Amino acid sequence: MHWTDESRAPYGHGMTPADTGASTTVGAAVSVSAPDVPDSRMAPGGPGYRRMSLALFLAGVATFALLYSTQALLPLISGDLGVTASDASWTVAAATGGLAVFVLPMSALSERFGRRTVMTASLAVAVTVGLLVPFAPSLPALVALRAVQGAALAGLPASAQAYLAEEVTPRALVTAIGLFVAGNSVGGMSGRVITGWVAQEWGWRVAVGVIGVVAVACAVAFRMLCCRRRGTSLRARCARRCWPARSATTSPTRCCAACTRSARCS
Q1: CA-CA distance, 168 to 184, in Å (whole number)?
Q2: Do residues 200 and 99 share a domain?
Q3: Which of 110, 211, 239, 241 counts the highest number of beta carbons within 10 A?
Q4: Which of 164, 171, 231, 182 is nearest to 44 (CA)?
Q5: Rounded distance, CA 51 to CA 67, Å?
């Protein structure tokens, strides 16, 4: 019986594995280089940087002016509503407590719906409640309104610094955050000083209403000045964020599931 050496069979001799459809490498990793995405975030002197800085400054002014608008008015509130000074202090505690409790939920919402959207909605709700506060008929109603106002204001500190980190180059980030913090300080001071001056002549309700009007002006200016995301497209932002984690089978023209759900790619 004649045996034929299979290694020298006609169908295998002189043919490469590619010709037979066989794979030469099993489980080999395929290296995929990240695309070259230019950094188009804002920088000092660049387009939109001053507008964005002023917008966040005014947002900080509005936030803390509303937050501490009743602190200098506690004696007048207690006298007008017939409550003790310690009871009247709940108008401040309710606002600051609401802000503290809702910072984390608001941060999650900003991830889902976008920083700019959450900040705009937070200011809109806060200033609307601020215009209703002067008409509170009793202390429980006033405290409830202030709690809602504080919860709404939580969207600003929860989103502002993350927004700056995403929109501003690292070398300009410290300056941008400093302007936002300066707005917080100016707002906290004006919320106490302006209300004290106005309340001496027209009472605490008018004083709180004046702060509400100032906050409305700041909110409108914020909305007009805070530019829509100027960075790269969805594909470019996704590539910069999660390209290294992709496998060779992931299509480079589609965002990964994590980025699709994230508002940072919206």
Answers
A1: 19
A2: yes
A3: 211
A4: 171
A5: 24
In a domain? residue 32: no
Cβ-based neighbours of 95, under 8 Å, separated by 6 or more: 66, 67, 68, 70, 146, 147, 149, 150, 153
The SS3 assignment for 168 reads strand
Strand pairing partners for 168? Answer: 42
What is residue 40's predicted lDDT score, i.e. its pLDDT?
A: 63
Residues 120 and 175 in one domain: yes
Secondary structure (3-state) at 42: strand
Amino acid in position 12: G
* Dist. CA 141–CA 198, nearest whole Å: 23
**Taking 70 as the threshold, does the pLDDT of residue 262 lie above it?**
no
- Number of structural domains, the chain? 2
End-to-end CA distance of the chain: 74
Q: Which of 60, 92, 69 is closest to 185 using CA atoms?
A: 60
CB-based contact 68:92 (threshold 8 Å): yes
- Calpha distance 231→165 (Å, rounded): 12
Residues of the domain holding 206 = 49-225
Of 125, 120, 221, the closest CA to residue 163 belongs to: 120
Phi, psi for 42 (deg, rounded to 5): -75, 150
- The distance of Cα 127 from the centroid of its chain, to the nearest Å, equals 18
Q: Give pLDDT tens digits for 46-88.
A: 667 788 888 889 999 999 999 999 999 999 999 999 999 889 9
Residue 199 half-sphere exposure, CB side, CA atoms within 13 Å? 23
pTM tops 0.85: no
Looking at the fold, whether 168 and 194 belong to one and the same domain comes out as yes
Separation of CA 239 from chain center: 21
